[in-house]
Design brief:
The chain has a six-stranded antiparallel beta barrel. It has two helices and six strands; from the N terminus they run H-H-E-E-E-E-E-E. By secondary structure, the chain is an alpha+beta fold. It is 66% helix and 14% strand. Among the domains are: 12-137; 212-289, Rod shape-determining protein MreC, domain 1 (Thrombin, subunit H, Beta Barrel).
Length: 292
């Protein structure tokens, strides 16, 4: 064999081997392709079923949506009708509101006039109440004054009755004293005395032992022109007269201190000269008396 033939044979063997390997690989790939094709067919069938189910669901959803759209359209129509009815009611209400506003304006004017009239009436009532209160106060005052007047009249009536009794008693005593004075005058004349001279004297009877019973106290002791004087707590309101002589006595010990001979008389006090055995012991607060 020639070298070229050997090379050809070798190449042929190599190509046969490669062809066999390629055929084996092709057959394996074909088998794989068949398996993949079956899988793809199965997947396609599944996807087709899903697509058909999706189409059925879509058709159902479309039907549902159509029904929903129809129902929504009916509701919208109802809402439009309701809106139109509401607008009509609103228009009617606007008309009524306008009428009510007009009536309210008229009534407001009436209320304003009535308020002014009521205020004027209230002012009149207030004035009348003030007048009534004043009249009540005057009535209360008059009632109080009437009660006081009644009490005063009662008191005056009682005092008048007492005064009348005292007047009658005094008149009786006066008549009795007139009789006694006549007897005393006659007795003085029988004894040789001058009754007129005795009555005309400034130092008439009743300034010493015959004086009425009058008691008081020494208020002040002072010296005038070197002579001791005392002011006592009784005066003309107590029937003290000029020339009346008071005995000065210490109330604690009962000691006779001296005399106060009155030479100045005022309504509620008198002043006179001091004399006696214990003039230096005469102080404010010691007793003075016309008797004893």
């Amino acid at each position: 064999m020639s070298p070229l033939t050997k090379i050809f044979v070798v190449l042929l063997v190599v190509l046969s081997l490669l062809l066999s390997g390629g055929i084996v690989a092709f057959v394996g790939n074909v088998q794989n392709f068949k398996q993949e094709n079956e899988k793809l067919k199965t997947t396609l069938a599944n996807q087709t079923s899903k697509a058909e189910a999706a189409e059925a669901a879509l058709a159902n959803e479309k039907a549902n949506n159509s029904r929903a759209v129809e129902q929504l359209g009916a509701e919208i129509q109802q809402l439009r009708q309701a809106a139109n009815a509401n607008q009509q009611q609103i228009a009617d209400r606007d008309v009524k509101n306008a009428e009510l506003s007009q009536r309210l304006a008229v009534q407001s004017g009436d209320i304003t006039r009535l308020s002014e009239a009521l205020k004027a009436q209230s002012d009149n009532v207030a004035r009348l109440q003030e007048q009534v209160a004043g009249m009540r106060q005057q009535a209360d005052t008059l009632q109080t004054q009437n009660a006081q007047a009644s009490q005063t009249i009662s008191d005056l009536t009682n005092r008048l009755e007492v005064t009348e009794r005292e007047r009658r008693f005094a008149a009786e005593q006066l008549e009795e004293m007139k009789g006694q004075n006549q007897k005393l005058g006659a007795a003085v004349k029988d004894m040789g005395g001058n009754v007129n001279a005795i009555l005309a004297s400034e130092t008439a009877a009743g300034v010493r032992g015959g004086a009425p019973k009058i008691n008081g106290v020494v208020r002040e002791v002072r010296t005038i022109a070197g002579l001791p004087y005392a002011t006592i707590s009784v005066g003309s309101a107590d029937n003290v007269i000029k020339g009346m002589q008071f005995s000065v006595v210490d109330r604690n010990s009962g000691t006779f201190l001296g005399y106060v001979t009155v030479d100045q008389v005022q309504p509620n006090e008198s002043t006179g000269r001091l004399s006696g055995p214990h003039v230096g012991e005469i102080k404010p607060g010691v007793d003075v008396r016309t008797q004893g």
